[in-house]
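Input record, target 12 of the design panel.
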């Protein structure tokens, strides 16, 4: 069994990003918008800021109180869209209970939508467009697959989880690479029928240690996108002890996909700069 660690993938991406930044004629800036009080989003924002600064991308932090209104967020989205010094925008989830994802998603300029919240970008993912922005976690999975030379064309893949943040766009991204993909979700009657047939199993549910020995095919590659805390320890979707003697390759938690996501976010900021510059030159 080989551990597919995220660190070398992240380091390769950051090296490439730094090289690309040297060719840009402007200083990139990412705006991170979040609501105060949510610890996971605050932690991610901190990690993202550290990553951006490490490659030379400025960060504009916008933090609202929990009683923020939709009107406030709409005004912020409009302001950031029009600000020429801002090239990427990410609205951290979750939003307050009175505000839905779709209330915000369509407000973000698709060219600045570096975490693929806008349905325009979800459509571009479906169309396999060169202009598509991708959800950072889903793209991180593809970056890991490519780094370790895992074949996708014609491969039997099973993705467990169908969220708009990871599962659904990832399924389409894999299909775009000519993989044969089964997608399991909460209504799937017996997921082992699908997971145990897969040469590549990707789990992105947040249901800790749900993937057991009977879910995996011998010699399969398993990518664990889940993350949570169990008995005070970081834990993923995969019961590592249960599967480690069966699978061929598996990502660790922590130290797997999660360590790549902020590097992908930086990669998308660079792409946003390039898209905005192209459109400006075309005018």
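The sequence produced for target 12 reads:
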């Amino acid at each position: 069994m080989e551990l597919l660690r995220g660190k070398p993938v992240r380091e390769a991406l950051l090296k490439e990003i730094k090289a690309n930044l040297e060719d840009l004629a402007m200083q990139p800036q990412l705006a991170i918008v979040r609501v105060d009080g949510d610890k996971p989003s605050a932690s991610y924002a901190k990690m993202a800021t550290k990553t951006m600064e490490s490659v030379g991308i400025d960060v504009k932090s916008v933090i609202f109180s929990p009683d923020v209104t939709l009107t406030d967020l709409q005004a912020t989205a409009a302001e950031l869209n029009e600000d020429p010094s801002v090239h990427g925008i990410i609205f951290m989830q979750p939003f307050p209970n009175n505000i839905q994802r779709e209330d915000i998603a369509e407000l973000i300029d698709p060219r600045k939508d570096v975490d693929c919240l806008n349905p325009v970008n979800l459509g571009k993912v479906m169309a396999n467009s060169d202009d598509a922005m991708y959800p950072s976690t889903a793209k991180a999975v593809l970056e890991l697959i490519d780094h370790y030379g895992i074949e996708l064309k014609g491969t039997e893949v099973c993705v467990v989880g169908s969220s708009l943040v990871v599962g659904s766009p990832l399924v389409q991204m894999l299909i775009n690479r000519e993989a044969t993909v089964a997608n399991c979700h909460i209504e799937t009657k017996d997921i082992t029928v699908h997971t145990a047939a897969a040469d590549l199993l990707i789990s992105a549910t947040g249901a800790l240690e749900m993937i057991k020995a009977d879910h995996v095919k011998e010699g399969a590659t398993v990518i664990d996108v889940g993350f949570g805390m169990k008995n005070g320890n970081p834990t993923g979707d995969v019961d590592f002890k249960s599967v480690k003697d069966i699978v061929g390759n598996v990502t660790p938690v922590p130290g797997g996909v999660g360590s790549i996501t902020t590097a992908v976010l930086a990669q998308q900021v660079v792409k946003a700069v390039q898209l905005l510059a192209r459109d400006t030159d075309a005018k």
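The longest strand covers residues 29-35.
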